[in-house]
Amino acid sequence: MKITRWMAGGMTVAASAALTLVSAGPAQAFPQGACGNSYRKVATYPIATGAKDGNSYGTVTLYQSPTAHRKCVIARLADRYVGKSSYLYVALYVDKNRNRKYDGPDIGIADGSPKYKWFAGPVYAPAEGLCVQFTGAIRIGSQPVVHGGTPEDTWKYCG
């Protein structure tokens, strides 16, 4: 399952990502609207893969800023699950070497914590002109993890 690889890879790079990124502050304090004034929504995917009840547990959204030259991703819970999540995770991967494969030189940035109650992120990456993959994952209580994002092994949004 792709999310397992992404979770493992994301946790491995989380420490290095912290050294290369400047966040807007604690995720819960960040406004739900977007990643910042210059960011525009590029794509939104439901977080529904693996949901036994067929419902979407939330969304994962990619934003891009032409002035900051970065992309940003946020995972949000659906309103009915706010305060009920036991795990909320978001990851952004950039095809830095432009070969459309996930390998060593690519940038993988993740942000996940069981403390998030309604969204995870924002996660920023320098990605002007580069393709990305992004994913979000949610666990409600003891239910299985549900995930969503760009289709598996698909590099998209290359602007």
Mean pLDDT: 79
- Alpha-beta classification: mainly beta
Q: How much of the sequence is in beta strands?
A: 35-45%
N to C succession of SSEs: HEEEEEEEE
Can you describe what's shown?
It is a single chain. The relative contact order is 0.25. Strand 7 and strand 8 form a beta hairpin. The strands form 2 sheets. A 4-stranded antiparallel sheet has the order 1-2-3-6, with no helix packed on it. The protein is globular and about 40 Å long. By secondary structure, the chain is mainly beta.
Concise structural overview:
The chain has one helix at 2-20, and strands spanning 40-47, 58-65, 70-77, 85-94, 107-113, 119-126, 132-140, 146-149.
Task: Spell out the blueprint of helices and strands.
Blueprint: H1 2-20, E1 40-47, E2 58-65, E3 70-77, E4 85-94, E5 107-113, E6 119-126, E7 132-140, E8 146-149
Antiparallel strand pairs: 1-2, 2-3, 3-6, 4-5, 4-7, 7-8
Which features would summarize this protein structure in a list?
disordered N terminus; single chain; mainly beta; 159 residues; 39% strand; 4-stranded antiparallel beta sheet
